[in-house]
Sequence to fold (662 residues):
Amino acid sequence: MLFADFYREMRFLSKQRYIVLFLSAVFALSAFAVWSGLHETKLQQATIERLLEKDTVDRENVLAGHGDYGSAAYYSFHVTYSEPSSLAFAAMGQRDTFPWKHRIRMLALEGQIYETDAENPELSLFGRFDFAFIVSVLLPIFVILLLHDLRSGEKEAGRYDLLVATAKKQHKLWLSRALVITTGLALAMLVPLLVGAAIMQAPLAKTAAMVLITLAHLLFWVVVTVIAGRMMLARGQNSPRIASALLGVWLLATVIVPVVSDTLINQSITGPNGGEVVLTQREAVNGAWDQPYEVTWDEFLKTHPEWADYTDMASSFDWKWYYGFQQAGDQHAAELSKAYRDTIVRKDVAAGKASLMSPAMLTQRLMLSLASTDISASLAYEQDVRDFHASLRQFYYPLLFKGGEFELEQLADMPLYRQRLSN
Amino acid sequence: MSEPVVVAESLNVRFADQCVLDDVSFTVNRGEVFALLGGNGAGKSTTLKTFLGTVAPTSGSASVLGHSVTSDSDFIRSKVAYLPESVMLYGHLTGMENIEYFLSLADVKRSASDIEAALKRVALQADAWHKKLADYSKGMRQKTAIALALLRSAPVLFLDEPTSGLDPSAIDEFNQLVTALSEAGSTVFMVTHDVYGACQVAHRIGLLDQGKIVGVFERSGSELIDTEQVHTAFAKRNA
Ligand SMILES: Nc1ncnc2c1ncn2[C@@H]1O[C@H](COP(=O)(O)OP(=O)(O)OP(=O)(O)O)[C@@H](O)[C@H]1O
Ligand SMILES: [Mg+2]
Fold:
């Protein structure tokens, strides 16, 4: 029965050129967003691939050209990267803010990680024009434009009484009209997403979750719009007033709450920034040249007591001392670095709470989380880099401290960066 | 002629502090044509809308075929074909498509030839049937809506100013149509300010003035209601 109503309204609305054009425009926007997301994903993948292709070759060339472990480590780079997930095209999120690739050397790490860090992570909504942006920010406007005058428009056109008097069940008329428009919007938005997901071979469960989030946000606004339209019409308000009121709600939920909470969070939760971490580490490393050796060794041995018996140096420069103060420099900045990351996490947690007041923010956060492009994913990559760097030190320290002859074969077991996140 | 179909009992409607219907009572029996006659703002359309359930009575009761408007408006709407005061249909659809759409809303199935027959009956020129309604004149829209009301085959017709916008010959045809419908057993409740038209078709006329029924005129035998007499009463009220 409802199907018959749905079919009738579908035929009816499909003859309304305004609606067809509107839905086509939504489809075009969504398709463009998906296309540009796919494009960006491919670019990032290509960049990673290019880096990886050169990575091994370059390193092998460097290693072959040096006669000691210290300079071999000094001159060789290691590519680390975080592959875009198969759904990153839909929600680029923090990949636009946080780095997703680093070429790492065995020198002090903090400076290498935060070298490019300049700004705050984006906690609010207005980043890239991607699918997540369309769903969280623009979708409510589409719903409002198409549905605010569901009833009031008919009233103003003078058809309301005849419609109500003619319809067998009047609520079914409004319900099926709203449903047809909702379905049209859902298809216009989701078909490009599904095509993108198929191209990227995204996992079914995550794609389904992405679809569900979109539908939930869509339905939320449909319900709000239809109920507000009905209630305001009953109080004698006309379509423009209904639309303004709804746009006010949109402004509040989608612009004001995110921007205000972003500002409040950045003001109330403060901590060191990446630049300070870099500076602290570099000052420690640079200062080490002028310090007595013991100062470096004392600091280094705090974390690596196993090399306490190997600190004797044959000359005034020894690579083990050099890497020792690189390590010490990181240790010097460790607390600050931790505080910096804790601040990011605390801000993220606060933004998560704030998002409960804004469906748009909530939608976007859920999408970023699904696409592994949120702050947790960025921090997880950073941790991967730290772990890899630690394993590199773990590998080189015995070679440096035990002081054996340089043998190229010894370097065959050098750790390789592998991305741990997978999807 | 004694089976009551449309019944108003002490109907009161207020909008804010304005009393629009004041203790209105009347009965329309099966097969009868009842006309509520009154000047602009007398409360005629409001009376109709009260029966359709789009205006809620402040007190009193209104019922159609024994079903109350307050509890059973879905039933009433399924038994009533309504011709609104100013006919506004969908401009982007043709006359035929409009009728098809509204019939399907009412869940009434009619073949294309049924619809064409109805359009012929209301004398809408055939070359307009497949034109967009946006290009119709007022009278053409009126004819389309009358055809729609006919196609509903409802036992009760509610007509709000049915002849407004019609040319004299179309009015004559319409009057004949209403007479034929009532002879076939339909109950017609119309509201109008056209004294002559009301006298042509109505078995009974109620004179409505400022929300009150101030006079009732009735046919005696097969003779039409006397236009002169109604006109005098009407003019006195609207002087
Ligand atoms: N929705 C409404 N809200 C407030 N007042 C209304 C409303 N509808 C009608 N009225 C008032 O009720 C009175 C009767 O209106 P109604 O439309 O019933 O008159 P009418 O007899 O049909 O007049 P006309 O011949 O001009 O069609 C008018 O004074 C009008 O202003
Ligand atoms: Mg009226």
About this structure: Residues 2-26+131-250 of chain A form one domain. Residues 17-64 of chain A form the longest helix (48 residues).
